[in-house]
Amino acid sequence: MALSLVVRTCRFSFCRFAPSKALTSYRSYGNNTPARDAHRKSVYKTEEAKRIRFYILNRFIEYLKNYDKILEKNFPTTIKTYRTFTDGIKTFSLETIEYFKIVMMLNSSGGSYAKLLRREIELYHQMPKDMMKVAPVIIFSALPFAFYVLLPLVYTLPKQLLTAHFWTPDQQNKFQIEYFRDRLVHNKPVFRHLQSQLNYIKHYGKNKTQFEKWANILGLLGSGIQPTADDILACKDLFMDEPYHLLYLSRNHVFHLLRVHNLHAGWFRRTRLADRAQVLIEMDKAILREGGVHNLPLNALSKACYIRGLNPTDISSDYQVKWLTQWIKVSSQVDKDNLSLLLHCPILLGYNEPSNWVLVYPKK
């Protein structure tokens, strides 16, 4: 009896502990055998495996570098539009920052136009208009997913919704000519207003002695000939009082004069015209400070002519220099009392220019 109990106890103990030892031994063999470690090393740490991994990584990096070229090849128009827009955003942002720096400088104690470069004065003049035009587009594009809706729209109507920052070179040339043509169509109404006051000068004007000279200038303009700067300066006193002083111009005369200078016909018309004349004078002074008309780069020379009322397309740089020199000769003799004279110079110096005339009356 006792013997059988001992035998059963031994059997129970063997069944309880033997499997655990066997499992432990098996796990130990499976985890720590040198054969398996050697196998792993041979697969993952050989030179061949390293070369394969580096080759795959390098190929992936090269693919990422050339990904824009792949997109440009498959979607050329879309990529070109996207790049133009992003480059425009960068340029517009930089010029906006520069504009506010100029504003702060001018409003600080001792700030004046004399401290600005010609390019900075041109930026100060043009940037507010550009900011007003493009602000709705930039604000709307910041909304979620709005950019993908807005981009096709703005490039369907780039002239109406964008500024020159976002235009392609071809669009810049095209739209600049169209905008300039819109300005030139107002030259003739301004010229007619000048003619309409000739009789008043003869009978009631305070400067009757200049009547003959002024009548000759208007006669030259009507005959297709441009008067010289000296001819114009001989009659500058007519613009210091009635009928050609800024305060005495008729409403319709002021409207067309605003459009000649690419200004809107809204509020504070005469004040904005006076400000425009002051800015033009400061631009001319900056040109002289920087070495004169002859030292202007070609692009700056063409832009200066465009701002002042001469179409620079298809005319030589020598002629542009000659014309701008005549303009500055008049501008240097203008002060706050006869600003109206400078405002009329696009007509007095550019009414009969062939490059202007061909835009208003194109050959059929």
Automatic annotation (TrEMBL):
Keyword Membrane: yes
Membrane topology designation: Single-pass membrane protein
Letm1 RBD domain residues: 178-364
Record keywords: Membrane, Mitochondrion, Mitochondrion inner membrane, Transmembrane, Transmembrane helix
UniProt GO cellular component terms: mitochondrial inner membrane
BP term (GO), one: intracellular monoatomic cation homeostasis
InterPro entries xref list: LETM1-like_RBD (IPR033122), LETM1/MDM38-like (IPR044202)
Record-linked PANTHER family: LETM1 DOMAIN-CONTAINING PROTEIN 1, LEUCINE ZIPPER-EF-HAND CONTAINING TRANSMEMBRANE PROTEIN
One MF annotation (Gene Ontology) recorded for this entry: ribosome binding
Primary localisation category: mitochondrion
Lineage of the species this protein comes from: Eukaryota, Metazoa, Ecdysozoa, Arthropoda, Hexapoda
Keyword Transmembrane appears in the UniProt entry: yes
Coiled-coil annotated spans: none
Transmembrane segments: 134-155
Name used for this protein in its record: Letm1 RBD domain-containing protein
Subcellular location(s) per record: Mitochondrion inner membrane
